Amino acid sequence: MPRELLIQVPPEVAAQQPLLIPHLAKLMHVSPADITHVAILKRSVDARQKAVKINLKVAVYLNEAYNESAVLLPEYREVSNSREVIIIGAGPAGLFAALQLIELGLKPIVLERGKDVQERRRDLKAINRDHIVNEDSNYCYGEGGAGTYSDGKLYTRSKKRGDVDRILRLFVGFGASPEIMVEAHPHIGTNKLPKIIKAMRDKIIEHGGEVLFNTRVTDILVKSNAVEGVATQNGSTIKADKVILATGHSARDIFELLDRKKIHIEAKPFALGVRAEHPQKLIDSIQYSCDFNSGRGEFLPPAPYAIVKQVNGRGMYSFCMCPGGVIAPCATSPGEVVTNGWSPSKRDQETANSGIVVELKLEDFKPFAKHGALAGMEFQKAIEQKAWHLAGETQRVPAQRMVDFTQNKLSADIPKTSYVPGTTPVELGQVFPGFLTQVMREGFTEFGKAMRGYLTNDAILHAPESRTSSPVRIPRNPETLEHVQIKGLYPCGEGAGYAGGIISAAIDGEKCALKCV
Ligand code: FAD
């Protein structure tokens, strides 16, 4: 039996077995030659002291053989002729629901408005280079959903470790690095995600499921308060008495459809703000207390940060921070701009970006009250459209240097940032309602006190970061997970208000599938 130990070591020891083995041997009073293998079970960075340390949980094998066990996928069944369940949306919620259905012996029919991962790349290029937004294929829509061209951070606030580990194991089974099972803050990276997503699709098809791209659902067919199937934009209808609705937080047409059909939905508070970009070297120097010029060294990863402050009774916090990452144009319709961030697996870009957002309350949506349950969505849309207008009606975004923003001063110039479509200098107070601007001005000042060096004119704010979570909740029965009114309709994932991020969306997809039996 291996011996498990919790140790704290310098980064260079954690990264190199020839240093780690003698360190462990000394600790365990054995000879290095007795250690046949060291398996890292968990790894995290402890940057609280001046000298950064790595926390490791290790299993040390003494004089015994070590057999690496491959991560095996569950047994998927052949479902070509099984009962069909429609899944709308091929994001993490939809894909993990489909795989779970196949495990259960049911046939998923996945309907996705966007294109497959490969084809989707062209549309991302068109947004970045030509400012053209395809309403069905963009950073939020297409195979893999909003998670495909993301940072692929795989951490969640979910306390259910078993559920999280199962999703991580499946990701590894479909091609992610086993390291994600070890890291305290695992991530996959934009360059690796598409292959993993394709492997999931191949598995669904191999076992008799269907995945239809370029298939936007335009109606949900309901009779006597029970779902009967869906209609698609190409005029066809597909029948099934169970429909998992996993269309994500940007599917405004779906929210409008439900509202029009008087299928109950509710406005939901979310958070909104800006995406801040700093030089990664600056964040490293703040987080690791290292010299800006000599840098963090070769054994530490680009530093992340997480910060939260209460300002005027509202939380202002960092969201989806991407070390060594890039800011992406995430609009889903022409006439709006939206930001978010991604990073490659190595996180080797020179900039660090993070959403910095303020929590909203339902009462903030009052000016849009005539839209009923869609008031929050209209609030969000109005800010995205205003930003588009102020920045010149392309995919350029309004931008301002951070100190200038706190001082209500238009920046004289904006240096080139990682946001490829470009920026326009705008006083960002013009983009947001006054109360939000006020909170952000005070909040950034507070952030500067908590993280010395953070409040700087070398940091550029891009507006807006507005798709943090769904502005609508689609209520469901907590037991059956069916919509409160409509039998057989399963509101699922982030768009319905039951997830926030890749892992929790995947968990919710599986939960809904389990209820379809
Ligand atoms: P989505 O992923 O939004 O998927 C919904 C799918 O439904 C889409 O593919 C869409 O095309 C499809 N659809 C919508 N309407 C229709 C229709 N009418 N008919 C058919 N199909 C439809 N989360 C993390 O945990 N870690 C990260 O690092 C991270 N980084 C991100 C970076 C970016 C750039 C973005 C945009 C998001 C990021 N997120 C991240 C958020 C994460 O991607 C989402 O939380 C997650 O994808 C939600 O999963 P979902 O399946 O519920 O919805």
In total, how many domains does the architecture comprise? Answer: 3
Main beta-sheet annotation: 7 strands, mixed
Regions with little confidence, pLDDT below 50 for 5+ residues: none
Distance between the termini: 41 Å
- Give the CATH architecture of the largest domain: 3-Layer(bba) Sandwich
CATH topology annotation of the largest domain: FAD/NAD(P)-binding domain
Listed once per kind, the bound small molecules are: flavin-adenine dinucleotide
CATH class of the largest domain: Alpha Beta
Judged by helices, strands and strand pairing, the structural class is alpha+beta
- The average pLDDT score comes to 96
Percent of residues in helical segments?
25-40%
Protein name: FAD-dependent oxidoreductase
Keywords: Flavoprotein, Oxidoreductase
Organism: Flavobacterium rhizosphaerae
InterPro entries: FAD-binding_protein, FAD-dep_OxRdtase, FAD-dep_OxRdtase_2_FAD-bd, FAD-depend_C, FAD/NAD-bd_sf
